[in-house]
Write a structure and sequence with these properties.
The complex is a heterodimer of chains A (396) and B (196). By secondary structure, chain A is α+β, with helices and mostly antiparallel strands. Helix content of chain A is 56%, strand content 18%. Chain A has a 6-stranded mixed β-barrel. The two termini of chain A are 29 Å apart. In chain B, the strands form 2 sheets. In chain B, strands 2-1-4-5 form a 4-stranded antiparallel beta sheet, with helices on one face. In chain B, strands 3-8-7-6 form a 4-stranded parallel beta sheet. Chain B is of the alpha/beta class. In chain B, helix 3 crosses helix 4, helix 3 runs parallel beside helix 5 and helix 4 crosses helix 5. Classes of the chains: A alpha+beta (396), B alpha/beta (196).
Chain lengths: 396, 196
């Protein structure tokens, strides 16, 4: 066995450049698959990871809402709806908010921004401890005409940056900036471009006390789906409308996201697989050329007593060696590539996606490489092994 | 040792049939030293290819050591070539990427002989044909006569009973040719059947 390895190795060494290029072909194919899978998985983790922390949350919206389709607001909730929700068994706490797009003026410059009215104590219900201020503080219950602004509002929306204690004109009345949130990005990126005021101030800006959304935290995550169904039923009843309310548990959102990511991964792998197919054609081509070139040699081997099996295993071993080495090299390149993409995305969008390289992906990469190598080596190897010795020897 | 019965070989070139052998029956005894003579294109090589189990006849049969080769499959024929026949070609037919020692040991490799034993026997055989000093040279670094001697050593590696040479001196000068004939005669005197 050792000797046939040696023989195969000798043949490979004779054709360094060509073998090297074939090997590179496989390596690039495998690397592409591994890099894309790792980045895709990292992306999935960075999005669903945040959501998992909010798994006990139910988002209640007055309208048709589902992931991937546009949200259509059908109206607003009222205090009775909120009371009804709070009475449901298993509901731990609730938070309400009202939001609308309003004109905001800063130092003579005007733009339209999403204004969110929220009870200051409710911030924790929605986001837990995940959101922090970069400067200043959160809103307090007794704040009047005060606002907490997102990172992008402060830095990008106006020509001049907004600082704590600066004044904005929202819907005609002046507000003092008490805090600026840290940059969020990812799933919470909408926080970056919102201005938060107290519910009381929101009422005066919006001119009504309708509720745009209710967040519900449940005691037991296992009951979340049931509670969500009950919420939809009760509020629909209050408003005498079918399908008025959408109560989405974060669990269902995570499931929907996972489906989307699985699809995304499949598309990425399909694209990367093209390079693998090209690589396997490359191996087959190299091996076919090698077989043609060595027809004479195969003839000699058969003439001096090599069985078909001997010739077959020699050629298969050659393509096997090339593909294993290519696969390992591909794994290394893939891990490097994944990190480069991850850093590149971080540099381009200011927000990093971790490259998560799973060991089973690496193992899979090597297995695929070997499979590709052996399968594409099989046809040339069989062709070599079935040559007639007398014709092959005569071939020059 | 070798017997052929009514051997016929027809080459097909497109639609034209070219008969190369017509009804050849012969018998070669053990220990015989036999020369096959004929003009160019008379079918000497074709006949030797049949007798050496490199090619199959269109009709008729070849018996090697009493076994009808027509009844054997490809692998069994490979085994006969490996164990019973040493074939020496006019073109030497050494493998260029392997050195003399490795070329000689190759048939033993296919026979499953251990690496150590292979190397030992290959070295002995090369010494026997006078190439003790050239064992690690590749064919391209050897003269025609030396290459043919490597080929003879290779033909002997599995200790065959029959040596078949297809114009083994055809590609070397007359002096080297005489030396090669000397080696073949020596092999014959050891009891091997030699035809060429």
């Amino acid at each position: 066995m050792k000797d046939i390895f040696l023989l195969a190795y000798r043949d490979i060494k004779e054709r360094k450049a060509r073998t090297g290029l074939t090997l590179l072909g496989i390596a690039v194919g495998i690397a592409a698959v591994i890099a894309l899978m790792s980045v895709g998985y990292g992306f999935q983790q960075s999005v669903t990871g945040e959501l998992v922390e909010m798994a006990d949350l139910i988002m209640v919206l007055p309208g048709k809402a589902s992931l991937g389709s546009e949200y259509v607001e059908l109206g607003s909730f009222n205090e009775r709806d909120l009371k009804d929700i709070e009475r449901i068994d298993g509901v731990k706490e609730t938070a309400t908010g009202a939001s609308s797009m309003e004109e905001v003026e800063y130092r003579g410059e005007k733009t339209v921004v999403s204004i969110v009215g929220i009870e200051p104590r409710d911030v924790g219900v929605v986001f837990g401890d995940m959101v922090k201020t970069e400067e200043g503080r959160f809103l307090r219950d007794n704040d009047h005409k005060a606002c907490l602004i997102g990172h992008s509002i402060a830095k990008d929306y106006f020509d001049e940056e907004i600082g704590v204690n600066d004044r904005l004109k929202i819907g005609g009345s002046k507000f003092r900036v008490v805090g600026i949130l840290e940059k969020q990005g990812g799933f919470k990126s909408e926080l970056d471009s919102e201005i938060r005021v107290t519910r009381r101030d929101a009422k005066s800006i919006l001119g009504n006390d309708g509720i745009s959304w209710i967040f519900v935290r449940v005691r037991n995550i296992g009951e979340a789906e049931e509670i969500a169904d009950e919420i939809e039923e009760r509020i629909d009843e209050n408003h005498k409308l079918d399908d008025f309310t959408s109560a989405m548990t974060m669990g269902s959102v995570i499931d929907q996201l996972k489906t989307i990511f699985t699809l995304l991964q499949a598309v990425l792998i399909a694209i990367a697989s093209i390079s693998l197919i090209v690589a396997s054609i490359g191996i087959m081509n190299t091996m076919l050329m090698s077989v043609m070139e060595r027809t004479h040699e195969v003839g000699i081997m058969k003439a001096i007593g090599a069985k078909n099996r001997n010739v077959l295993s020699l050629f298969l071993l050659e393509s096997g060696i090339v593909s294993v080495v290519g696969g390992v090299l591909g794994c290394v390149l893939g891990v490097l590539g994944a990190n480069v993409i991850s850093i590149g995305i971080g540099a381009a969008f200011g927000e990093g996606i971790p490259a998560i390289v799973r060991p089973e992906v690496l193992l899979g990469g090597i297995v695929v490489a070997v499979l590709v190598g052996v399968l594409s080596g099989l046809y040339p190897a069989r062709k070599a092994s079935r040559m007639s010795p007398v014709e092959a020897v005569r071939y020059e | 040792m070798i017997r052929s019965e009514h051997l016929n070989k027809v080459y097909r070139m497109g639609k034209i049939e070219v008969p190369a052998l017509r009804d050849v029956s012969l018998e070669i005894e053990e220990g015989e030293f036999l020369a096959i003579v004929g003009s160019s294109g008379s079918g000497k090589s074709t006949l030797l290819n049949m007798l050496g189990c490199l090619d199959k006849p269109t009709s008729g049969a070849v018996f090697i050591d009493g076994v009808n080769t027509a009844s054997l499959n490809e692998n069994e024929l490979a085994e006969i070539r490996r164990e019973k026949i040493g074939f020496i070609f006019q073109q030497f037919n050494l493998i260029h990427s392997l050195n003399a020692l490795e070329n000689v040991s190759l048939p033993m490799f296919f026979a499953g002989v251990s690496s150590e034993e292979r190397m030992k026997r290959a070295a002995e055989l090369l010494a026997k044909v006078g190439l003790r000093e050239r064992m690690h040279h590749k064919p391209s670094e050897l003269s025609g006569g030396q290459q043919q001697r490597v080929a003879i050593a290779r033909a002997l590696s599995n200790n065959p009973l029959i040596i078949i040479g297809d114009e083994p001196t055809g590609n070397v000068d007359s002096e080297t040719g005489n030396a090669i004939m000397g080696i073949l005669e020596g092999l014959n005197s050891e009891g091997r059947t030699v035809s060429w």
